[in-house]
Amino acid sequence: MTLYRKRLAFLALPLAALALTAAPAEAQKTVYVVPHADLRILDPLQAAATITTMHASNIYDQLFAWDVNLQSKPQMISDYKVSDDKLTYTMTLRPGLKFHDGSTVTSKDAVASVKRWMVRDGVGRRLAGVLASIDIVDDKTFVFKLKQPYSWVEYSLGNHAGNYPAIMREKEALIDPMTAVGADAQIGSGPYKFARDQWKPGDEVVYVKNADYVPRAEAPDGMAGGRQAKVDRLIFKIIPDPQTAASALLKGEVDFIDSPAADVLPQLEKSNQVTVSKLAPVGGFGAIRANALHPPFNNAKARQALALVAPQSDYMITAVGTKNWNECFSFFVCKSVYGSEAGSEGFRKPDPARAKKLFEEAGYKGERIVITSTREIAAIGAQAEVLAAALNAIGVKAEVEWADWGTTLTRFLTNKAPVGQPGHWNIFTTTNSWSTWHNPLTNIGVVLNAEGSWAGWPTDDEGEKLRVAFIEATDQKTRMELLEKLQRRMYEVMPYVVTGQFDQQYAWRNNIKGVLPTSKLVLWNISKE
């Protein structure tokens, strides 16, 4: 029995216990979606988790948005002007924007929301660093004034790679960015409303159509264009067991599965009532992230060792199956514009003996290594199992501590406890989208300064200087030259280990129409026939 099968057996639940059957009267107006994880963190500034971004994009709008090719387009903005010296951006909100409580979206809401977002998001902090001020002209118009020309203004405001730049009411936007906006205040201006009174954590998350929403006139395109709510309700149905979810889809008890597990794809692909397909034009990838604050991974040699203990094929086949994946040794996603594999020459093949030696040189003396992970997201848990087995095979005492995704996420994002203290962890495994990791500006894994470094918290002055130089470059030729140097430096620092690249698959009933190609799943524009 494979590790993956063992996990399914461990999680198996009887379908009847989930009571999935919907009333026929609501079937044509309600779409049931099985998300990849339970929604635990609602405020998009508290986590860059994909499930939180999915929630936020249902209910909140944003000033700009990325199309399917990650080009930024106006979203809540009707038009904007850039001064000849590239230092002044004058923006006007489009008409018809209303919050779910009926109040009109104003410049005060937009400016307060952007300021709150810039405190928490890495891309936002970089934008804040070049801002002289954001000035309100009137209820619909505001002005960004820069200290210096910056090529990424529109791109940053359209970001959905990190913390979603949600436009909130001013009253919520003025809440301390380190404090979460509560469930009762999840009030946006997007195409769907969060039905707080119907939310059942661990079971259902309900969204209802925002009848007052006025979509853009353009056709939907990735996150950009017209966000059209075409059904009355969206319901996230939380089904942790992959086989139970697949059975529910085949029986028509749910309509859509976000990221079905590899083991259930063959039976879904055989059905003539189900579509199985990727959505993103470029695949995402798996990653291993070590805690660089504490031994042994405060030494780069131990982090390098993680790249040598197992081949990418072991991770990918266990996580996503025998197809829909490829090897990749780029920190910035292969098949993307910045997908260089420079510097990877010494890490493309497993070398357990060398890995063991690197651990010894890093000062490892047999301490217990804690991998924090979840079975709730199949691909993440599968990678953790492969890594633990590979580490134990070379004498590194690794053990996976399992929890639900929300608990695991909170643990590795916030707990910096040293060895022996409650909540201490050494490693987590994850998966990430093309949109998040393709660019040194948005790739939170290569931020290497003490203030902005993501969970794991590695720092490196040389790497950070190269990353900042890339961001500040004004021409693509210079960026590409800096990208090559940065990519090589990353293999010296090893802020994370790429475990392979894969095309995430999705599955839906054939009567679901309008599913958009995007790097992260969006649920506007879909209809149910």
Helix tally?
17
Largest sheet features: 7 strands, mixed
- Sheet with the most strands: spatial strand order: 8-9-10-1-11-19-12
The rounded Rg comes to 23 Å
Structural write-up:
- The protein has 529 residues and is α+β, with helices and mostly antiparallel strands.
- It folds into three domains: 3-9 and 27-38 and 191-279 and 505-528, D-Maltodextrin-Binding Protein, domain 2 (3-Layer(aba) Sandwich); 59-173, Alpha-Beta Complex (Dipeptide-binding Protein, domain 1), CATH 3.90.76.10; 284-502, Dipeptide-binding Protein, Domain 3 (Dipeptide-binding Protein, domain 3).
- The protein is built from 17 helices and 21 strands.
- The strands form five sheets. The protein has a seven-stranded mixed β-sheet, sandwiched between helices.
- Helix 16 (461-472) packs antiparallel against helix 17.
- The radius of gyration is 23 Å and the shape is globular.
- It starts with a helix and ends with a strand.
Question: Which helices and strands appear, and what pairs or packs with what?
Answer:
Blueprint: H1 3-11, H2 24-27, E1 30-34, H3 50-59, E2 64-66, E3 72-74, E4 77-82, E5 88-93, H4 107-120, H5 122-130, E6 131-136, E7 141-146, H6 153-157, H7 170-173, E8 192-194, E9 204-209, E10 233-237, H8 242-250, E11 256-257, H9 265-270, E12 274-278, E13 284-290, H10 300-306, H11 312-320, E14 325-326, H12 352-361, E15 369-373, H13 378-393, E16 398-402, H14 405-414, E17 427-432, H15 434-437, H16 461-472, H17 476-493, E18 497-502, E19 505-509, E20 512-513, E21 527-528
Parallel strand pairs: 1-10, 1-11, 15-16, 15-17
Antiparallel strand pairs: 2-3, 4-5, 5-7, 6-7, 8-9, 9-10, 11-19, 12-19, 13-17, 13-18, 14-18, 20-21
